Amino acid sequence: xxKIDLTDFRVATSETAxxxxxxxxxxxxxxxxxxxxAQLSRRSGLQRSTVSAIxxxxxxxxxxxxxxxxxxxxxxxPRFLHLNVERAGILAVDLRPGTTRLALGGLDAxxxxxxxxxxxxxxAEFFKEVVxxxxxxxxxxxxxxYEGVGVSVAGRVDSSGRLVFAPNLGWPAVDLRRELEAAxxxxxxxxxxxxxxxxxxxxxxxxxxxxxHLVAVTVSEGIGxxxxxxxxxxxxxxAMAGEFGHVTLVENGLPCRCGKRGxxxxxxSNTAAxxxxxxxxVAAADGxxxxxxxxxxxxxxxxxxxxxAVETVERMAHYLGVGLAPVITGLAPQVVVIVxxxxxxxxxxxxxxxxxxxxxxxxxxxxxxxxxxxxTQPRLRGAVTLVVQQHFGxxxxx
Length: 398
Description:
This protein is α/β, with parallel strands linked by helices. It has twelve helices and 15 strands.
């Protein structure tokens, strides 16, 4: 149980209790739909009159709908409640070096349309592109009520929504939340991509019901780690918790964009794998096959038996396991979720990662290592979750 901070707190009011009861009811509808008022009362422990009042308000606001009745023997037939997933639209933004992806999602983290464009070199151009894309989405779906914008970003963001550390993105510090809210006229939530992916697993993942200790690892241009411990997202001082990608793995190793040397992401990221493959090609004096490869190209070449690609993928897997081992030993998560293109090659990467982890961690610490399905688009789903939790998560009280 968290200690109450007596230097910064708010007392609970009757409005707080009503807000909590409302969110409990809304979440029970979301998790157990279709559900009747009587079932909702039994599951929540709330009086039927309280449930009726809450549901009446939620129906009036469009969050909940009443579906068809089901036969229930003698007596009055109950009418079943459903979450109105088509009511709310959420603009999800996945901001990465190289490419930015935008999608229009619903409360169930399903997407009705999406697009992508090259990430601009300057934040001002990024804001203009977001406005242009959002206008196109609204024109295509005028019936949707837009609840907010969620931004998953390859960098660290402080509590005010300001980007404070993004060496791979190459942008200066910028107040993403304030600038986007001014541009699109909607509430904006901004979070580190790995944190957002961890939240998405908590809300929509396969382990949503029974996992309270989870680590999400994003493997892309760099490596990000999101920490979900005791069911709470951990930000640390100045929102810098989880920067394991910039922990020194190799003493006096390769230089990193953060200014240090030997960082984990210089050995286990997509960027590191592509660089290593090209170095092997140069050393072989044949330049490789067909120009600069992408990480997906390298995985395909490895499957086709290309020796350089096989060496590159195995090296990437080795260092991924080496970096994960101290994270697992120190935090003892139940589940480690892997996000990124590397999951497409998990049949080759996974066994190496798990072997390294077994060799380097305590025998009683055995988390489940889970590669995410790229079809679920974890980063975009994480961006949607940032907005969903504003309505369904616990209210901010002391």
